Amino acid sequence: MSLTINSTVELLNGIEMPCLGLGVWRAKDGQETENAVLAALQAGYRSIDTASMYRNEQGVGRAVRASGIPREQIFVTTKVWNDEQGFDNTLKAFRNSLDRLEMDYADLYLVHWPVVGKYKETYRALEELYDQGLVRAIGVSNFNIHHLEDLMGSCRIKPMVNQVEMHPLLTQKKLFAFCRKEGIQLESWRPLMQGRLDLPLIQQLAAKYGKTSAQIVLRWHLQLGVVTIPKSTQEGRIRENADLFDFELEPEDMNRIDGLNEDQRFGADPDHIDF
Predict the structure, then answer these.
(1) 44 assigned to some structural domain
(2) Are 77 and 21 in contact (CB under 8 A)?
(3) pLDDT tens figures, 195-253
(4) Looking at residue 92, what is its pLDDT?
(5) Catalytic site residue 54?
(6) CA–CA separation, 7 vs 19, rounded Å?
(7) Closest C-alpha among 31, 81, 86, 87 to residue 59
(8) How many domains does the structure of the chain reveal?
(9) What is the domain extent for residue 70?
(10) CB-CB neighbours of 81 under 10 Å
């Protein structure tokens, strides 16, 4: 599989989305976020994932402008938070996100969590924003199969992306297969399991390929065809997380990593959210 740091996946509407991005969850707004985003862009990343809840959209916007890279070459994702959901509230929340980013459009806008009784109206607002050309692609985050089926029963535009927790201890095989069948691109957050990289198999493979454990796990995601957005604020780690393109995991090693699944979440279960 010939992958490079410039590799993309094609979404349902033909938009190209980078396979590798930088996540900025818990990065402090201001210098920490700006330095991380600039380091990522200088290392060749072309996708940045933020959200209104992260409270660092301003720092992301400043870094994108400071990079000198044309805006149209950078794929910027943001998300509507739970207390902003509903049709009118979402339209307002998006405008606020654009104001903080100081951008004319977002490349991808997501419903952050499936808030019961609200996510359909929220998604309807995303369709409106898409129709207006204010977002290039729309989708959801943390949706299980039944959420997607419910949403697709009434939406006009099928979600193009589903961003979920996924990693070797939570391989999401049924959800992945469902999304692939529907043409919905799966994107992984918390791909490095909150640093749980001491799994014996992952360490064995790191030694075998002469790579770090993190690089083994991220390469596994990419070879599956899953977009991934590892989070870091350290320049060295950001560069290390992008050094994935001079090796390829053998099929049997991909299968062995798949076998680590324990359905273990480090984040919330989308069926039981209270925030």
Answers:
(1) yes
(2) yes
(3) 999 999 999 999 999 999 999 999 999 999 999 999 999 999 999 999 999 999 999 99
(4) 98
(5) yes
(6) 6
(7) 31
(8) 1
(9) 16-196+225-232
(10) 21
On the question of pLDDT at 257 being above 80, the answer is yes
Catalytic residue among 45, 54, 123, 130: 54
pTM: 0.97
Q: Tens digits of per-residue pLDDT, 179-209?
A: 999 999 999 999 999 999 999 999 999 999 9
Question: For the packed helices 145-152 and 173-182, what is the interaxial angle rounded to 10 degrees?
Answer: 20
Q: CATH number for the domain including 163?
A: 3.20.20.100
- Tell me whether residue 187 is in a domain: yes
- Distance CA(158)–CA(240), nearest Å, equals 35
Distance, in Å, from the CA atom of 25 to the CA atom of 96, rounded to the nearest integer, reads 18
| % of the chain with per-residue pLDDT over 70 | 100
In a domain, 115, yes or no: yes
- Backbone phi, then psi, for 80, in 5-degree steps? -95, 130
Is 63 part of any domain?
yes
Q: Model confidence over 5-37: pLDDT tens digits?
A: 999 999 999 999 999 999 999 888 889 999 999
Per-residue pLDDT at 1: 53
Q: What is the 3-state secondary structure (H, E, C) of the chain?
A: CCCCCCCEEECCCCCEEECECEECCCCCCCHHHHHHHHHHHHCCCCEEECCHHHCCHHHHHHHHHHHCCCHHHCEEEEEECHHHCCHHHHHHHHHHHHHHHCCCCEEEEEECCCCCCCHHHHHHHHHHHHHCCCEEEEEEECCCHHHHHHHHCCCCCCCCEEEEECECCECCHHHHHHHHHHCCEEEEECCCHHHCCCCHHHHHHHHHHCCCHHHHHHHHHHHHCCEECCECCCHHHHHHHCCCCCCCCCHHHHHHHHCCCCCCCCCCCCCCCCC
- Please say whether the beta carbons of 29 and 178 come within 8 A: no
